[in-house]
Amino acid sequence: MEVESRYVAVRHHVEGLPSEDDFEVKAARVRWWPESGEVLVRNLYLSVDPYQLNRMKRRSASHLAVDGIVPGERIDAYGAGEVVASACEEYKEGDVVAGVLGWEDYTLFRPSPGVLMSKLAASDDLPLSHHLSALGERRRRRRRAPRHARMQFLLICLSVSVAPGGDRWIEHVAGTSGMTAYAGLYEVGRPEAGEKVFVSAASGSVGSLVGQFAKLAGCYVVGCAGTNAKVDLLKNKLGFDDAFNYKDEPDMKSALKRYFPDGIDIYFDNVGGETLEAALANMNTYGRVALCGVISEYTDAGHRAVPDLLEVIYKRITIRGFFAWDFLTRFAEFTGVISDWIRQGKVQVIEDISDGLESVPSAFAALFSGDNIGKKMVKLA
Amino acid sequence: MEVESRYVAVRHHVEGLPSEDDFEVKAARVRWWPESGEVLVRNLYLSVDPYQLNRMKRRSASHLAVDGIVPGERIDAYGAGEVVASACEEYKEGDVVAGVLGWEDYTLFRPSPGVLMSKLAASDDLPLSHHLSALGERRRRRRRAPRHARMQFLLICLSVSVAPGGDRWIEHVAGTSGMTAYAGLYEVGRPEAGEKVFVSAASGSVGSLVGQFAKLAGCYVVGCAGTNAKVDLLKNKLGFDDAFNYKDEPDMKSALKRYFPDGIDIYFDNVGGETLEAALANMNTYGRVALCGVISEYTDAGHRAVPDLLEVIYKRITIRGFFAWDFLTRFAEFTGVISDWIRQGKVQVIEDISDGLESVPSAFAALFSGDNIGKKMVKLA
């Protein structure tokens, strides 16, 4: 069986703000045959995430944890799809899977401990797209780690443990925006009822969930975003106590002083830069910063936060970088809790879905111009 | 009874590098009488610490936790002395005390829950000066906190708890270099045997103890300091695995790469600035930064570290500011452990003692020119 399968590639390493022109859609054919041992998936939804930009750079701290992307080659990405052919017991034609697929029409994979793929239950009552946004699949597999633990994974991995024999293994797990929001807020932020939480990029895929989770934890929550429509969404649909358009605030420090007269206890940081500096200046003693993303630095490495470390010391602040999958032992709990919240209407899942593989480049570029609201993904025809 | 008691004051707020000229020794008389309820202490040793510079500034994040110093007025400081007159049951003439005294010949205090003072046991076999350096006194007292919890304390304070009646109280405790080193290394750094520890300002009062404690925890320890004599001390007397003079290293990042080919797991930061940036660049996944001091920023607020937050995220690094007294529940253990280590010769206490109250200004200024080795203090005649 052979199918036409276009894929999206970068033409070259991308160092600054990405544009559609940095990408091309390339034609290819994918061949599957019964003896291949492989599974052929027709992709239905593909995730479009800012962190991929770091993989597209020639050099990036990102490459310490996630492989760089090679110009001209296919790009792996989280997604959901339908099995159209399988040479493997575990998967049947018609099964719906979520896991590491690619920015392409069809993905071929060989089930192995190193491959992240979950079969969704037929009884699953939530929209398939939610498996790329609020929900997350869990799959724990073990394989011997390569020497320097640089691995081919994405929203995946990386709790290194020592196996009984003394060998080092790496446990893989897939995470999504929901898992990132949950782990970052609850495990890094550790909110208590009544605490004050500030979320930047609050209408984004992670931020929109963090704010709602923090409200469910009994916190006072203020978010910032870059358009008035986003601010409206935060205040009127997502239940944030308050929200503001950071573009209307020439002085972020005094803006935060207005929105947090009693100080900030937890800052969920998606942007870095001056916003982090201003949050530290307004933070209370024993404040926590959950450092999830520094999107202001993704497109401009020279644009960095210059935190006042005296404040960090005298206020005994903790700044912690994290990945969702550092908390994999709690993933089963996360998925259950988040699913229930969605079913009960306590959490709104905001998704921003573009149509067709050819829209991946514009969808990706839009992430950095602030055009998306909620989780950005592409639905294939 | 009335005694002549000179005191050291600042002539004005001190904003940059301090010099002797910023200080003056002023004459005063202190009067004690039996009905005063007060205790008169002749000061024997006075602690000289870099953090006092932040108190001397007109504005500083320091003032969030510790009162600023008023030009012309006496300056409270940790010290040890001998009771020469007492109107209080608890203290007798001849008792030796350690606690919050002042940069002055005699200190008068009225025992109260708000005053930090410990009577040393007559059986104490360690040098009195050690109570200002490696050891620490513990005194837990309760008093009603002022409204905004800004308090007149130094190496003191600040675990806010809610008393049974719902009132807020503040528990005071005194900390010293030993407590800071112990708490920062063990509670913030959480070393495991075999981990790699980097200490800046490693020949200083805190750094010299951190390195020795880390060796006792089974770690590989490298320190940096600013003179070859200090480097010798670290390597040949204090048992560091290696040490280097940072002034000989134009590129700190590559220097650390040489000294830590397997990366840094814990960075005990006393200096901030480029050293912190370089340590982050050389840090391993799940690295911890115990942020104890940023002396490079004390004298120049414009001189700030610009950490690469992408590294902090992708390496899941935790940066945490701390005070020793955040860990007051473990102080009794700390004091016991450190005393034993000193008696057993496992820990060397390095002290740099100047003579006479009039040497306080030069001793203080020397902290910022890198002239001191170990704990800086002044012994009064």
TrEMBL record, chains A, B:
Assigned keywords, A-Z: Oxidoreductase
Protein name: Enoyl reductase (ER) domain-containing protein
Gene Ontology MF terms: oxidoreductase activity, acting on the CH-CH group of donors, NAD or NADP as acceptor
Record-linked SUPFAM superfamilies: GroES-like, NAD(P)-binding Rossmann-fold domains
Domain Enoyl reductase (ER): 16-378
Pfam families: ADH_N_2, ADH_zinc_N
Quaternary structure and partners: Homodimer.
Gene3D superfamilies in UniProt: Medium-chain alcohol dehydrogenases, catalytic domain (3.90.180.10), NAD(P)-binding Rossmann-like Domain (3.40.50.720)
